[in-house]
Amino acid sequence: MKTILSSLALISGVFSFAQTFNGTSGNIQDNQELVRSVNVNGLPASINQTTFGLEQVCLSITHTWDADITATLEAPDGTQIILFSAVGGDGNNFNGTCLRSDATTSITTQNAPFSGVFKPMNSLGIANNNQNPNGTWKLRIFDSENGDEGTLDSWSITFGNDPATHQPFSSSNLPIVIINTNNQGIPDEPKIEAQMKMIDNGWGNINNITDPANAYNNKIGIERRGSTSGDFPQKSYAFETRDVNGTTIDTVLLGLPEENDWILYAPYNDKSCMRNIITYKIANEMGNYASETVLCELVLNGQYQGIYTLMEKVKRDDNRVNIAKLLPTDITGDELTGGYIIKIDKTTGSNNDGWTSNYQAADNSDINFLYHYPKSDEIMPQQADYIQAYVDSFETALASPSFTNPVTGYRKYSVPETFIDFLILNEISKNVDGYRLSTYLHKEKDSKGGKLRMGPMWDFNLAWWNADYCAGDDHTGWQYEFSNICPGGWQAPTWWTRMLEDSWFQDELKCRWTTLRQTILSNNSLYAQIDSIAQYINDAKDRHFEQWPLLGTYTWPNPSPIPADYPGEITAFKQWILDRTAWIDANIPGTCHLGLIKEEIASLSVYPNPFREEIHLSWFSTGISNTRIKLFDLNGHELSTLEKSPVYGMNEVKLGQFPGSLSSGIYWVEIQEGTSISRIKVVKN
After folding, report:
1. pLDDT (0 to 100) of residue 664
2. CA 356 to chain centre
3. Tens digits of per-residue pLDDT, 351-364?
4. Which of 210, 265, 66 is nearest to 150 (CA)?
5. What is 2-160's CATH number?
6. Torsion angle (degrees, nearest 10) of CA 605, 609, 614, 618
7. Among 202, 212, 587, 617, which residue's beta carbon has the most beta carbons within 10 A?
8. What span, in angstroms and rounded, lies between the C-alpha atoms of 485 and 465?
9. 559-574 residue pLDDT tens
10. Which whole number is the average pLDDT over 627-634?
11. If we measure between CA atoms, which residue out of 53, 115, 107 comes closest to residue 79?
12. Looking at 29-132, which runs of residues are DSSP E strands?
């Protein structure tokens, strides 16, 4: 049915009229899509963004828990425009809600019930592409969850002389990712087949959306990802690279090591767009693997989606979690002992296969371990029994009266240095999910020094002053004591509380923190990383926040006060780091016996650490004086000396010629330039 709002007139050869077409109602059911069509006729044969086109879409929906709903308008030529998705949280209803691209308020920033005029998530101007509007227009309503149903009460589309406009995304200094699903919706699972292009003309060059796809141009399998973040309007995706036949194939993407499992992470509620990136970079500089990342901008089905982070998925691989491949036939002897990846996480959906610890959290809630590698549907019974028994032995040793004994206590089953690094990163960032969610552990074969190691680091989007619950915004207090603040729900194991009763662990923690605070965790180093990323995305962030107008508004769970703009976000980020590190400096336990730390060498890092055969040392040098590098054992005996003439800037040496054969254990690497001297502890497997 159609309603003429004003009669058709021809003025100076230009059509002048507005016309509204009303659609029909229908029932909205759980996990189903309601499609309602309206036939448009009698309009000019072409709609555009200047003289005549689509102006407005209005609808009324009765529904509880609005965030379950995604509303999409589909034009006769197949163009799809997401009007809204995952907005309104647990609020109810859309009452006479009209979507216009010239509205001053975005629907993504408002609360239910929605009544009035709002800017849609995607621009209506995308449909004003010179297509013939006469034909079938569709409104698609999808309810993504169970338990809340409702009705589409009414809806309409209006065409007129004030058409919606759209400024297409054309270029970026960031790599551009273009995905086409042929207008298929991307489900939570399973993966659907799509086509992906990547454009990357190299650092410092501009990438144009019309440039050849020089970084990737082939099929992918893609699905949505994320638990809580799955409800955000900007979606994160997991995908696998495939060849022309649809077969999974390892591929280098944007310079990252070859693999086939990847993630496009959407930093929707991280207004800095960098919290994960910074954390993973620090973890790698500390000598612990964490996901490599690349910032990019995403176009999905012709529509700009904002800034994304291409990330390596946590996976057993020589270039990722570098542990032995565990075959189904590896069910006895040394072959059974590794490698494994497990995690502490929510038991939701398909992410629920594992076991419950014999030791509870401080509030007496259960701790659940989940199989990650091998996957739950691939792990053999003997392997499942083995890793469960090993973790139980570790926890039992930690709980025993003799837990501090280096031979029979928790150190028999673990590499405590990785627990120290894990604590430092979760504490400096006050990660509200730390220790209790997305917490990975892995174990290598016994013949390769197989003990429990923490990591890789994962999921820090709610860290670094980005959570307004459970004291996540308070720069004081220890995050490992989470149950003291927020009892109930998902809790952290008591491992770190117990380890900190060991004076050896305290002292090792103190020394590690002291060394890192004068190098990669110094305030100046952290600020430099933040400033570098902020500068890199300076142009892209304007497009991102035009697509997702979140600056100055509350987005769950951003703490208050909410900065008004992006520079304010960066300033608040730095101020919190200053306050947090000062508190840890004043409160971290232990005594550091190094006694040799003077002026530290800038940007000093050693990797890999722990190492097997050789280690790489990198540092920033002024190039004024020679660099002397020494290796000591824990008793202070000098084992090796190397002298190098450095150049100004970053320098690197490979240390592999050690006297004799170093046995497994802990050593110190010392580097000295003039009066500057630093020591870093290294572990030989």
Report:
1. 72
2. 27
3. 569 999 999 999 99
4. 66
5. 2.60.120.260
6. -10
7. 617
8. 16
9. 999 999 999 999 999 9
10. 80
11. 53
12. 33-40, 53-63, 69-74, 80-85, 94-99, 114-118
Q: Are 472 and 430 in contact (CB under 8 A)?
A: yes
Q: Which residue has the higher pLDDT, 579 or 636?
A: 579
Helix or strand (DSSP H, E) at 311: strand 303-312
CB 536 within 8 A of CB 295: yes
Is the pLDDT score of 454 beyond 60?
yes
Name the burial class of residue 549, with classes exposed (0-12), middle (13-18) and buried (19+) by CB atoms within 10 angstroms of its CB: middle
Specify the DSSP class assigned to residue 609. S
Q: What is the DSSP string of 486-509?
A: S-SSS---SHHHHHTTSHHHHHHH
Q: Give dist(CA 345, CA 459) in Å, integer.
A: 11
List pLDDT tens digits, range 370-400: 999 999 999 999 999 999 999 999 999 999 9
Longest dimension (CA), the chain: 96
Q: Which residues contact 255 (CB under 8 A, 6 or more apart)?
A: 200, 294
Could you give the CA distance from residue 196 to residue 193 in angstroms, rounded to a whole number?
10
CA distance 440 to 344: 7
- The two three-digit tokens of residue 366, written as one number: 């259960």
Going from N- to C-terminal start, the domains of the chain cover 2-160, 171-312, 333-517, 605-684
Name every residue whose Cβ is closer than 8 Å to that of residue 637 and which is 6 or more positions away in sequence. Answer: none
Taking the chain, what is the end-to-end CA distance rounded to the nearest angstrom?
76
Min mean pLDDT across 37-41, 140-144, 337-341, 529-533 is at 140-144
Tokens of 91: 């609020």
Which 3 state secondary structure label does DSSP give 397?
Answer: helix
What does the pLDDT look like over 209-260, one tens digit per residue?
Answer: 999 999 999 999 999 997 776 678 899 999 999 999 999 999 999 999 999 9
**pLDDT for position 667:** 79
> What does the pLDDT look like over 167-206, one tens digit per residue?
889 999 999 999 999 978 898 889 999 999 999 999 999 9
| Residue 308 burial (C-beta neighbours within 10 Å; 0-12, 13-18, 19+) | buried
State residue 570's pLDDT score: 98
Protein fold of 605-684: Immunoglobulin-like (2.60.40)
The beta-strand segments (E) located in 327-454 are 340-344, 354-356, 368-373, 439-443, 452-454
* Residue 542 in tokens: 């304007």
pLDDT in tens, 136-152: 999 999 987 777 889 99
Rounded Cα distance, 357 and 379, in Å = 19
Question: How far apart, in whole angstroms, are the C-alpha atoms of residue 305 and residue 272?
Answer: 16
Please give the helix or strand (H or E) that residue 483 lies within, else none.
helix 482-485
